[in-house]
UniProtKB/TrEMBL annotation:
<dbReference type="GO" id="GO:0030097">
    <property type="term" value="P:hemopoiesis"/>
</dbReference>
<keyword id="KW-0119">Carbohydrate metabolism</keyword>
<dbReference type="Pfam" id="PF21405">
    <property type="entry name" value="AMG1_II"/>
</dbReference>
<feature type="binding site">
    <location>
        <position position="279"/>
    </location>
    <ligand>
        <name>Mg(2+)</name>
    </ligand>
</feature>
<keyword id="KW-0479">Metal-binding</keyword>
<dbReference type="InterPro" id="IPR016055">
    <property type="entry name" value="A-D-PHexomutase_a/b/a-I/II/III"/>
</dbReference>
<feature type="active site" description="Phosphoserine intermediate">
    <location>
        <position position="65"/>
    </location>
</feature>
<keyword id="KW-0597">Phosphoprotein</keyword>
<feature type="domain" description="Alpha-D-phosphohexomutase alpha/beta/alpha">
    <location>
        <begin position="52"/>
        <end position="89"/>
    </location>
</feature>
<dbReference type="InterPro" id="IPR036900">
    <property type="entry name" value="A-D-PHexomutase_C_sf"/>
</dbReference>
<comment type="similarity">
    <text>Belongs to the phosphohexose mutase family.</text>
</comment>
<feature type="domain" description="Alpha-D-phosphohexomutase C-terminal">
    <location>
        <begin position="475"/>
        <end position="527"/>
    </location>
</feature>
<feature type="binding site">
    <location>
        <begin position="499"/>
        <end position="503"/>
    </location>
    <ligand>
        <name>substrate</name>
    </ligand>
</feature>
<protein>
    <recommendedName>
        <fullName>Phosphoacetylglucosamine mutase</fullName>
        <ecNumber>5.4.2.3</ecNumber>
    </recommendedName>
</protein>
<comment type="pathway">
    <text>Nucleotide-sugar biosynthesis; UDP-N-acetyl-alpha-D-glucosamine biosynthesis; N-acetyl-alpha-D-glucosamine 1-phosphate from alpha-D-glucosamine 6-phosphate (route I): step 2/2.</text>
</comment>
<dbReference type="GO" id="GO:0006048">
    <property type="term" value="P:UDP-N-acetylglucosamine biosynthetic process"/>
</dbReference>
<dbReference type="GO" id="GO:0005975">
    <property type="term" value="P:carbohydrate metabolic process"/>
</dbReference>
Amino acid sequence: MAQFEEVSQKSAVHPKPVGLVLQYGTAGFRTNSKQLDHVMFRMGLLATLRSKKTKATIGVMVTASHNPEEDNGVKLVDPMGEMVTPAWEGYATQLANAEQEELLTALKDIIERETISMAQEASVFVGKDTRPSSDSLSQAVLDGVHALGGHSKDYGLVTTPQLHYMVCCQNTQGRYGEATVKGYYRKLSQAFIQLTKNVPNRTDDQKALLVDGANGIGALKVCEMETYLKNELQLSLFNDGSSGKLNHLCGADYVKVQQRAPKGVEMTAGERCCSYDGDADRIVYYYSGSAGRFHLLDGDKIATLISTYLKELLTQAGLDLQIAVVQTAYANGSSTQYLEDTMKVIVRCTKTGVKHLHHAAQEFDIGVYFEANGHGTVLFSKAAEEKIQKLAQDSNTNDERRRAALLLQNTVNLINQTVGDAISDMLLIEAVLAIRGMTVQQWDAIYTDLPNRQLKVKVADRRVIDTTDAERRTVSPAGLQEAIDSRVKKYRQARSFVRPSGTEDVVRVYAEADTQESADALAHEVSLAVYRLAGGVGEEPKPRGP
């Protein structure tokens, strides 16, 4: 077939280094950009097959998110803007690792297994971040799409969530929105302006926000969007990419892990600040207290703010919809307690990883999910959206109920339901703070985090650890869970769990307790138990120094 001849010819231009093996993980493929040319070409091929199979547009995003600038990566986006299915993650790995002469065999194997009609039209949307390597790598993706006769649309520089949004708009025939960057800015900014226009006496202070763009794509795009916001939000942008290096000493991951402000951001006490990550699908907030102490508001705090706001609006609107917050075991115990006991919101715990959270959130009328690292969004069921819409349009409804329904309707429009989106989440948080008349300090004071500590223990083989109950308890090796339980009992408000890393032979330990001293001591004792019972290597874990 002529099609496969073209694949052979073009794949010779994007040859695979012999013996190189890569794995498609939660974040797609990610590694040093020099090793990715053949992978990109082949992901162009795979996206074209996926499009023929689903008879829909598929997205391919070239990015390595919060990794260093010299890395790159690629993620596939399914028709509704969601992540690609596990079976196709397997095909991605298979195709990426096939040696040059086995490529056609691997390709035909997928076509056969999925009974794909090669006569079916294919459409692929491609986007890229600002890394120096993204130009040539996104071109390799396009080469792959064209080699199998697929149609492509190259969006050029976009954030990861923007590409997810475009794919969803395209496949809903525009019901979700217009599949252009301008359409994205218009939909979000109009919703934001509608939400904030009725807030009385918003001062310039309340409209001011410092943004750390991680020297990445988010900085470019939030600049483009600013004119659409008509001064309803006044942004001061730092790390805009003009001089600094992507993610270097800045960005959401740096701020969350180091618990400090990014380089170049001058904060005065009480000013609201936020940081995006490299591809703008994560956000964290922070401020400096009166004594110069750094305060972080992570994904748990964001989920709490948003779910509390939604719950109040549902009550005011008299809508009987079930709202739930989906967390992982890493969520701080204080947030879980506040949501369940004070707010009376359902809390569901899942395994770590966005796809598990997203999946669980789909089971409720309204599902709010955020990982502690700041990646998250809100999902509304079709039925929930219809009920909100109906009430907002009903002229017989009393004023308070209708006002709440209109706020809910604009909130739905402000949220990018396909995936975590730093720009959309930022606008949502800003709107909620404005509507509720809250300062960043008042938001932070909703609950106080329990002191916690995370440690890593090197082991010979991470697979000896097997967990259950959303990774909160271990079932093997024998005796480990009992050892953890007996150590947790010694401390107040304590909790601890261990889980194998997804990528390296280490076991991750999490501990929290009523004081930092106790949390540190518990984390160390649990680390020792892991080291002794799960085949630790190297030196025994030492207690944390003063």
